[in-house]
Amino acid sequence: MQFIFDLDGTIVFNGKKMSTLIADELVALKEYGHDVTFASARGIRDMLPVIDERLHDVRLIGANGAVVWENQKLRRYVDIDHETFRTVTAILKDIDATYLIDGHWDYSIVGDEEHPFLPMINVLQNAKDVSVDELQFISKLLVLECGDPTPLLDQIPTLNITRHRYRDEARFDLTGENVNKRAGFQSVCAEDYIMFGNDLNDLPLFQKAVHSVMIGDFAPLFPYAKEQIQLNARTEATIVETIRSLKEKHTI
């Protein structure tokens, strides 16, 4: 069985590396014969620092589905086309935005280079902040801060682009058209899957999962969640217990 896990707020908390407790169970899940996939809004570069090194060879779906990485190699990507990129960045300039432009590995920062979110980027210091022209392709624009976003939001329906929003956060992502985590997964795997997630960008995967586990309390996921794990002192222990139960219940 395919097991898909979101990272932040699902099995990774407060931006820190996944705990040994969860990592050990995920390694055991693989050894039992199941497949593990991580699917995140983070780019691949920024997924790796929070994933246990023993799991770096699993399938990674980054940038909300724009990039697929397998066996530590680029498998597939969907970029933002050049015309759309020029249109969007012109609007971002007009609304005084600070944003991150992500390729599949290197990146470029536009705007406030002291923005408090940026220390979460390139934690392992194995990528470079380069000019846009040096990026092989553009997987994602992460808008960290801007003035009134209305001019951009009004244009999005006319552009080949997808906006990804998050609860309780002002920032948002922009990727190519029809990009989401489920599309990224299904572009390389047609098998049934079990999904663990917590936020709006996990919804497409929840909708088609054979079993889904919601971490926390997020109303849009409720109609599709088969189980819920509350955020409390036992959250990680309960996640491990749930993985263990599903590992034995579902055939390989």
From TrEMBL:
NCBIfam families registered for this protein in UniProt: HAD-SF-IIB (TIGR01484)
SUPFAM superfamilies reported in the protein's UniProt record: HAD-like
Keyword annotations: Hydrolase
Protein name: HAD superfamily hydrolase (TIGR01484 family)
Pfam families named in the record: Hydrolase_3 (PF08282)
Keyword Cell cycle part of the UniProt annotation: no
GO molecular function: hydrolase activity
Signal peptide start-end: none
Domain of life: Bacteria
Lineage, uppermost ranks: Bacteria, Bacillati, Bacillota, Bacilli, Bacillales
PANTHER family attached to this UniProt entry: 5-AMINO-6-(5-PHOSPHO-D-RIBITYLAMINO)URACIL PHOSPHATASE YBJI-RELATED (PTHR10000:SF53), PHOSPHOSERINE PHOSPHATASE (PTHR10000)
Classification via InterPro entries: HAD-like_sf, HAD-SF_hydro_IIB, HAD_sf
